Amino acid sequence: MSDENAASAQPQRSAVRMIARNTIWGIGAQFALKGANFLFSVLIVRTLGGEQFGQYWIVLAWTGLFSVIGDLGITQYLAREIARDARRTEELFWDTVFLRLVLAILCTAITVGTAVAVTNYSSEIIWGMLIFCLTYFFQIIIAPLNSILVGNERIDIASALNVVMQVLWMIFSGAFLLLGLGFDWILIAGVINLPIVMALQIWFVRRNQLSPLRFRINRALWWSVIKAGLPFGFTQLALSFAFRVDTIILSSYVTEYEVGLYNVAYNLVLTLHGLNSSFGQAVMPTLAREHARDPQAILPWYYRSVKLLLFLGLPIAVGGMVTAGHIVGFLYQPEIAPAAVALAILVWDLPFVMYHSFCGQIANSITREGSAARIYVTLGGFNLGLNLLLVPRLGIIGASFATVITDMLGAALYYLMYRRTFGAGLGLKRLIRIPLAAGMMGVLAYAMRDQHLLLIILVAAVVYPALVWLLGVFSPEEREQFVSLVQRRLRLKPAA
Length: 496
What we know:
Layout: H1 3-8, H2 13-66, H3 74-84, H4 88-118, H5 123-151, H6 155-178, H7 183-192, H8 194-207, H9 222-253, H10 256-293, H11 298-322, H12 324-331, H13 339-346, H14 349-365, H15 369-394, H16 396-422, H17 428-431, H18 433-447, H19 453-470, H20 476-489
Helix pairs in contact: 2-4, 2-5, 2-6, 2-9, 2-10, 3-4, 3-5, 3-9, 3-10, 4-5, 5-7, 5-8, 6-7, 6-8, 9-15, 9-16, 10-13, 10-14, 10-16, 11-14, 11-18, 12-13, 13-16, 14-15, 14-16, 15-16, 18-19
């Protein structure tokens, strides 16, 4: 497809409204959630210190590596199937619940058993893993109910409940921190909030008449559900592996304090990435429906979304690299200052992971989850090998480079996949102007390096959009749509 045809293609209005509503709710919830989570993580680091924070992240990394066993992708499959045909809710829901019960038991045994058998982790870390595994048993109900909400395109409710869950966790964790308790009590806080969230989920699902009509178990479906969920499960496994294996390998070569430094930096990047994930989650159920109706409806969403993601991600990477020392010094106590070096590298992961995670959601929408799984499995193996090569020699710096290079490969693989599937249409002549604008902004931020961090951010936030506008990154049609949107929101009449 040519650039002109891609630009002229318009998404269906119903899809626009649905995705806009879900994105607004999702991003609004993520801003509130990530902002609060970010501030709370700063409090956790300041209260626990680098060593205990490292222990906490070792628990999260190890359990995250095996957590996919508790699901195997079946709840993602459930959400996708409900989005394509809501009648499948009654057919699949209770079988999904039962399968998750079996998988939760298996996942707990493997997670804790392998940690005891093959690692020399302390008893505090093993105990923390056991506490975390209790969440799997609440997720037996919570995850399928969330699939009902997502599949019925009620991302607004799912996002709101996610905020409630995190707020409750922060309230309980904050109380435990004030009492001077250790990192394991933060994990306990993550368990005791789940019954409240589950009760709210049940209420919302029933109120919106989305619940299954009756209890029904069909054992003949179990193998087909597991088989259909495996591509999603392999993707989850590969992503968990990519996100967690660096911490696990680091824990074998560096101190728990250095593990804490690495995860302070990585956590900052993941906080920013969480905002992007709202858009991907909003896109999946609606585009799954649109693709079932008209496969060509996906193309304009892909082309325009890629430009938007690059527009958002690249300046953050440039600015984050230039101001990494300022950021760490502003947020944390002096003992965390060495994390700035890892942050200056890891922040470049953001544009790559934003792109390939969005592409993964597109793949799920167009029933290409098998291709997505192969890409993510490839990335998982590549990331493991790169960490084993770099971490023993370079420590947290090696882990940082391994993360960025892995996600750069993921972005390249997805670009090639969609270049073959969708054809040309990204408009590279205009896209290349975004790095130019980001680079000019970065030079200005570096020149202001002796100024206060907030002043640098304020100036960059004004200068970068102006450069993008002046350099003509967006087409005249896109500019006109943007101006029209602003005028409508401000209730202004266009000039005659």
